[in-house]
Amino acid sequence: MLLLAACGGNDASEGEENQVSGNKTITYQSESGPVDVPENPERIIALTNAPNVLALEGKVVGVDEWTNTNPLFEQRLEGIEVVSEENLEKIIELDPDLIIAGTHMSNLEQLSEIAPTVAFTWGKLDYLTQQLEIGKLLNKEDEAKEWMDDFKGRAGAAGDEIREKIGEDATVSVLETGDKEMYVFGDNYARGTEILYQEMKLSMPEKVEELALESGVYTLSYELIPEFAGDYVVLSKNADVDNSFMETDTWKNIPAVQQDRVIEINTKASTYSDPITLEHLLETFEKAFLESE
């Protein structure tokens, strides 16, 4: 599920100025209560939500391994260490002034003794609220809000154009390749689903809505792909697994495949719902839908 997990998910928080040990801080209202954090953190370890921090140009010194494998962040992560919550010695060595973690992680108490630690529950906040909360945490709330409003406007306008071109009733499904199975996604599980369904207001096939909308993701065998394929298919393709199913008649006979209506995206570059990933996927979808014949 680590591969499938996306960073997203609704409680707002307020920040207020404070003075702690002579250092200027703000009080961030986290899920577990108020946490005094640096007003302008200089050494952030992001064990989760690192892409959201990078999008706001937060000064990161350590990130999780999965973020580090994402090709979209390669240049931004040059010289930044890969760490986990288990490696406390490495975290101490990096001398962080803020740690961002997940509530599911171990050693949260020990982490909070090293530096102010804020933990988020994956999936609790929708993708926009998550970015807003990171903005509040980094004292960059206005920047986060500005991006949110701008992105929603641009994605919504693109959706209007796309629906006008492909038809209001046209359906789009988002599939991902696995080792021996496929995954199909609802409207809040990264892979661009928030853009396609929430902002562009494109429709998903009935089978997808029935089995994946509430849960976020549904696992199926390759043989069942035709039942979940929409008029258009966004295929999150994982290069690390066997993709020979694409050579089968089952795949080749799907109408979206025959009509060249398959939009391929890189799994490793699409498993987050942060601004960097979303901007990349918005551009990808606009080109695929609007510039195709």
Q: What is the number of beta strands?
A: 13
CATH fold node name of the largest domain = Rossmann fold
Low-confidence stretches: 1-22
Number of domains: 2
Order of helices and strands: EEEEHEHEHEHEHHEEHHEHEHHEH
- Any idea what the shape is? elongated
- What is the CA-based Rg, rounded? 20 Å
The CATH H-level superfamily of the largest domain is Nitrogenase molybdenum iron protein domain
Number of helices: 12
Whole-number mean pLDDT: 93
CATH top level assignment of the largest domain: Alpha Beta
Portion of residues within helices: 25-40%
Span between termini: 37 Å
| Main sheet attributes: strand count, strand direction, barrel closure | 5 strands, parallel
- Structural class of the secondary structure composition? alpha/beta
- What is the strand arrangement across the widest sheet? 6-5-4-7-8
Name given to the CATH architecture of the largest domain = 3-Layer(aba) Sandwich
Can you describe what's shown?
By secondary structure, the chain is of the alpha/beta class. It folds into 2 domains: 15-139, Nitrogenase molybdenum iron protein domain (Rossmann fold, 3-Layer(aba) Sandwich); 165-290, Rossmann fold (3-Layer(aba) Sandwich). Helices cover 35% and strands 22% of the residues. It contains 12 helices and 13 strands. It has helices spanning 50-55, 65-68, 88-94, 108-114, 127-137, 141-166, 193-199, 206-212, 225-228, 249-252, 255-258, 275-290; strands at 15-20, 23-30, 33-38, 44-46, 60-63, 81-82, 98-102, 117-120, 172-177, 182-185, 217-220, 232-237, 262-266. Helix 5 (127-137) runs antiparallel to helix 6 and helix 6 packs parallel to helix 12. It starts with 14 loop residues before the first strand and ends with a helix. The model is unreliable at 1-22 (pLDDT under 50). This is ABC transporter substrate-binding protein. One of its GO terms (cellular component) is outer membrane-bounded periplasmic space. InterPro entries: ABC_transptr_periplasmic_BD (IPR002491), Bact_iron-sidero_bind (IPR051313). Residues 43-293 form the Fe/B12 periplasmic-binding domain.
